[in-house]
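ERR on first pass: missing label on line 2. Operator R.T. fixed the label and resubmitted. Corrected input:
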Amino acid sequence: MNCAELKELLVAYVEGLLEESQQQAVAEHLRGCRSCQAELKELADLHDRLVTNGKALAQSNLEKDVMNQVIREQNTRLKAAERTSVGGPRPTLQTRRTIMKSPITKIAAAAAIIIVAAIGINYIMAPSVTWAQVIEPILNAKTLIFDVIIGSDESGMTMHEIVVDSRIRRVMSNMPNMTMIIDLDNAKLLALDTEAKTAIYTDIEGDLGDRTRSYIKFVRQIIAQLQEGQVQDLGEQTIDGQKAIGFVGRGQNEEVTIWADPQTALPIRIEAKIGQEFSFIMKNFQFDAPVDESLISMDVPEGYTLQKTNIDLGNATEEDFVESLRIWAEIIGDGTFPQAIGPEHAMKVMPTLIQKLTAMQVTEEKGTQIGMGFGKGMLFHQILESQGQWKYAGAGVKLGDANTAIFWYQTKGSQIWRVIYGDLSVKDVAAENLPK
Amino acid sequence: MLEKDKFYVERCLDGHPDDYRYLVRRYQGVLLANLAGKLGSRDRAEEAAQEALVRAYFNMGKLKKPDSFFSWLLGIADNVAKEHQRKEQIQRQREIVRSSLQESAGTELSQDYALETAIAELPEAYKKVILLRYYGEHSCGQIAEQLDMPLGTVTKTLSRAYAMLRQSLRQQKQAEVYEV
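pass 2 clean. output:
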């Protein structure tokens, strides 16, 4: 092989595209030829430069911006198309059947907002605005789209929710591949992995309490309770870049702040704090945006494989909770209990759990079981938040430490406390003997 | 690599805008590399890439062959780049009139501007191969399939593209020397 022939092959050599025999011939020639070595060096440098630059650019994240713009513009176009639809030109993208037309009377979302608005009405109504005007758009809200941020500030994980009647479509910001569709009427959940194209049905029957299912319904409940409590006017402020009137309601165990548009009385932002640990913010409300029926369908979409699972998320028990603590310490925390527990923290570590399970190479079935078990135990804790009291002291404690209490709780009406230790044993303890 | 472009294009046309994100993921690097060289800054490239992607989505109905999404997208990006360049030219002229002394604002160059410029100047066929290989994480086999050519042709095109890039980078360096 001469130098000219070799130069033809060098790029393929750098790229590893040559057949074994050619590869060897090139290597052979290179050993004895300085000038070709220099040529190879230059090509390899350029190759590295391309790879480095390629990686840097591939890391950029246009996805969120592009998708936001696409969805926003799509909505605008749909609305425009509907206004001019009779005999007008068809929109470029098929709009298909939208939910807007269905005659729904019992609408969880709209009902919730009526109460939200009702509580604010005494404070918001300018003399020129009438009650009828205020509730008119709300009564007609057939679909509701909003974001829920878990946590008390904007840094938390966000869930994007689309609520239509008793169906919810939920996507979490830290697991963008997972889409959940929840059917409240039949207490069923359909989880879709849009990357792996797999689907799982789960029963969510039992005493979970409505808030684990629907944030909007939960807010409605709280506000219904708050009507007897104290509501305080917060006056006018700029919220999320627009003028808003706020008021805060405090109940025994919860506090809800609502910011609404002074013109329309529609909520802009709702902040809720429940118990000691659980806060969420709802914002970016869209009333009556058209929702494609397929988005909230409980059918397995075409091209997805249905996976069997027999985990029932209802009736979470102490045993489930202990199991989720074990998973948290053993799998997520490499043997140490976490700094804090609660839904906010649990949701934040979900991606870590998935990574660890993948690294452990558990079967898909086993992985699903562990993931669901973790979630189920956390539901028990969530119920305690509203129906009992609890304390977590496990930060940094090693799994197996039988002498250190990591968690104790008391359910409403009970005299005894249950104490969980670092080895995950559980004992009954009288109030006066609790760890300090 | 997951599904082919065609699959996602058809999903979008069938009313599943959510699935467009896979195409965005697949080609954002490619678009940025192509546009950074043309527009001279990362910020401008991002803006133009975003615009091209959104425009592509809303014009997907006009795409005749779903298989050729990539080439078509690249064409849209080139148009967007031309429009931006034109706008910038007008703006720059106005700025010059307003104050000839002020530095023009924020032209933050991307990390390897020289390389991106060299890529932007490649003839179309060579550019596509380089973009897909290094900015779109395609293997040579996948490029062959995507561009519908034999693997040997991909390798040859790649080899020639390397030679052109080296030539162009060398020239840029010389020009720099003279400028200093």
